[in-house]
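Provenance and format

Records in this collection were gathered into a single text stream. Each protein contributes a sequence line and a C-alpha cell line. The two records reproduced below are adjacent in the stream.
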Amino acid sequence: MPDSQGPDTFVRIKVQASNAPVIVLSGLEDESLATAVMDGGAQDYLVKGQIDGNLLVRSLHHAIQRKRLEQALGESEEKLKTYL
C-alpha cells in the first residue's frame, strides 16, 4: 500500500468500520504482526501465496460467524448489566 503500512490501514478500518469483520491479507509471513492484528480484533490473518479458494471462503465464512457471535455476546452483556 503506497499510502500506509498494513497495521496502520488495519487500525483505520477498525476505527471507521468497527462492526465489520476484518481479515488481514499480507505479503509477509510475520507471526508478531499476525498476533498483533488478531489481538487488535482481526478475524484472521492470511499470507498471499499461501491461500487457495477453499481457505479464503472458509476464512470469510468463519470471520462473519465470529463477528456476529461477538456482537450478540456484547448485546447480551449489555442487557445483563441492566438487570444487575
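Adjacent record:
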Amino acid sequence: MTRLVLALLVVAVAAGCGGDEAPTAFQEASVYYLLDEQVWPAFRDIPEGDAAAEGVVSALAEGPSLDEAEMGLTSGFPESVDISVADGVATADSDDELSVEQLAQLVYSLTQPAVGATSVEISGESYTRADFEEQTPAVLVESPLPFQGVTAPITATGTANTFEATFHYELVDAAGSVLDENFVTATSGTGTRGTFEFTTADVSDVFALVVFERSAEDGTRIREVRIPLTQAS
C-alpha cells in the first residue's frame, strides 16, 4: 500500500472521530503508470464518490511503489493537475504541459468504472482511450494486477491488438517453471483492439502471469510482459 493510501486512511480515521461526519469509504481501482512508455495498471484503494478522480490523480503523482518500480513501472506525473468529473466527462487543468504518455496515463486512469468518466477534456481537447493506441501495449492485462493476491484458477481480462487477435500466456512458479500455458483469441486484432477473458488451469504456487506474442516470421517471443502475483491468504 502506497504512502498516499496510508495518508488517506489517516484522514478517514480522523473524519470518523469528528462527531456525526461519516468516515471516507474506499474502493479498489487501477492507476495507470508506464512500462516501456506504454500504460500499465497498478492496484490502488481510492476514495469513493466525488473524491475518486482526485484520488487517482494523487496516486499518479505519488508514483509506483518500490515493488512496482522494480518491475519497470514509472510515472513522472506532475502534482499540479486539478480534476473534476460531471456527466461522464472529466475536466483536467494543469500548470504543466502534459506529454502524450502522461495524457494516456490520465485518460486511462479516469475512464474506469471506479471514477465514472468516459472521456477527458484538457486544454479544449477531448480524449478517450482510443486516442492512445500507440501508448497501449499489444496485450493489456487489466486483471489480475501486479502483486495482487490470487488463487487459481485465475480469470484474466483486458484488451489486445495482436496479429490475428491471438497471443499466449503462461503461469510460472518462483523458479520459472511453467505451470500452465495456452493461447488466447481476443474479439479482434490486426489493427483493431479487442477484449479478452480467459481462465487458467487450477494450479498451485503461482508466482507470475506472463503474456506474449509469437513472431509471425520465426515463432520467437515478442512483446513479453511478466506480471508478478502473490498468493491470496
